[in-house]
Amino acid sequence: MTGPMPLDLASIRQAPKALLHDHLDGGLRPATVLELAADCGYDQLPARDAESLGAWFRDAADSGSLERYLETFAHTVAVMQTPEGLRRVARECAIDLAEDGVVYAEVRFAPEQHLEKGLTLDEVVEHTLAGFREGEALAAEKGNVIRVTCLLTAMRHAARSREIAELTVRFRDSGVGGFDIAGAEAGFPPTRHLDAFEYLRANHAHFTIHAGEAFGLPSIHEALAFCGCDRLGHGVRITDDISVPGAIEEAQLGLVANYVRDMRVPLELCPSSNVQTGAVPSLDKHPFDLLARLRFRVTVNTDNRLMSDTSMSEEMRKLVDTFGYGWSDLERFTINAMKSAFIPFPDRLKIIDEVIKPGYAVLLG
Hints:
Site (Important for catalytic activity): 234
CATH superfamily: Metal-dependent hydrolases
Distance between the termini: 6 Å
Number of helices: 16
Keywords: Hydrolase, Metal-binding, Nucleotide metabolism, Zinc
GO molecular function, one term: zinc ion binding
Number of domains: 1
Structural class: alpha/beta
CATH architecture: Alpha-Beta Barrel
Strand order of the largest sheet: 1-2-3-4-5-6-9-10
Radius of gyration: 19 Å
Helix content: 40-55%
Order of helices and strands: HEHHHHHEHEHEHEHEEEHEHHEHHH
Pfam families: A_deaminase (PF00962)
CATH class: Alpha Beta
Largest sheet: 8 strands, parallel
GO biological process, one term: purine ribonucleoside monophosphate biosynthetic process
């Protein structure tokens, strides 16, 4: 081959990808939701066939409201209450990501939401991790190698964050890479969970915080200054602290934005989801390109593949079509993500040097 491969969806699928922000309960196959609902007797699904159900999730998530968007999870969480359900969803998650060219993924979920059938928090995590390992093995049999790391999420409106932080530390040698808090931001600041973050820091554990998605700069400031997070989940509202009066070279950054860029705090940007939840008005107005050009550590993520009817390849294609990115840009965003992963440095470097760089070298010709 001479010269780079054409930048289309098919070729993007061949590119090695690193994913940091993907919700397990937001990535189910519609057919799996239907089958698990039948198995566990859940009869409140809004559609009875996979195609219609997938369309319902996408349409319901397109409301432009984070709160309305989050309501769709009631159906997926409802079918993830048994060992079999958790293992299957995790197994299929790993397989689906691997088939899309994802070589490293961090998938998060909230164990506290999966206790309705009598499972303990530890059992929830054990079954989910087992599913990921099964999925990795099945993907490898098809020649699609992937490493999946699990992040444990605490719900910001609940009071179990310290318990989930302890769970994170307890399972960090078994496939759990870190901690997260999620849920509606307004009225539930991250500082409500300071005891959890203090415990994590005391135990040298990684954590990210959903901040700067539906709520503005104060959410980001608290996540960094008081909680001490390693990464920002979404973080699109960092642009509230950036002024661009003219050319990009004239951009003026406030104290928070300067800190995020100077300290290379990774931004877990999720283009399609950010539009769906109303965090940004449209894809062409997404701050991804501004932040990338200002050399923030931007990463590309799916957030919820079912609700956004998306994949990592789709998210990259949309960015290519919207902002004119080339292979070298996609490689940079992928390496940004891999540098920011919650696994040991040698492991990150190995994937960058032995998988990502060689993979993009082929695509670049």
